[in-house]
Amino acid sequence: MTVSLDSEAVKALAPAGYYIALRVGFAFPMEEFNALPAPWVEHYTLQRFMLYDPVIQWIYANTGAARWSEIDIADPLDILNQAKAYGLHHGVAVCCFDNNPEGQRSFGTFARSDREFEEKEIDILIRHVTRLHHDKAPPTNLTMAELEALRMVKDGMRLKQMAHLLGVSEGAIKQRLKNAKLKLGASTSAQASTKASDYGLI
Prior knowledge:
Elements: H1 7-13, E1 17-24, E2 31-34, H2 38-46, H3 54-59, E3 64-67, H4 79-84, E4 90-96, E5 105-112, H5 119-135, H6 144-154, H7 159-166, H8 170-184, H9 189-198
Antiparallel strand pairs: 1-2, 1-5, 3-4, 4-5
Helix pairs in contact: 6-8, 6-9, 7-8, 8-9
GO molecular function: DNA binding
Protein name: Regulatory protein SdiA
Domain HTH luxR-type: 135-200
């Protein structure tokens, strides 16, 4: 069973705030949702906590879910105790990785100020993050010719250049880009090229 929650439903489960990162590879997530308290985000960023955060360390070493209180990783900067000053008393980390060749994982960290998360709530959040992760999966039906055309768009080539280099008509290039846009859900060739690059396809 899949679960798709809107932002209000997630906020109801995690009233103190949450952060979701989708398809994180070696650098930045493909998409992220940050509903954590702004003062905490500022403090966390200025102190460069991410490198030392036991929750983030757990996320990159595990899949599934764990309450913050269950994470047995050193917290030398006392990050989790500092978070309590911003209303983040109880939390759960959720991570999804499906062994995709791009090495991309999706995760979320959710917080409450009043109590620990219940098992049924954790299960809903796991399924929500997993659903978002799969929804952001790269399409597998792009042809080599379409990817080649998108790579050329990324390199800033014009239709005439592309057609000349590939030995085909401009009409053929247009059709390849049209197909690629449709498969990627993009409205322009540039947008399709960016999406394909974000997915690690080109």
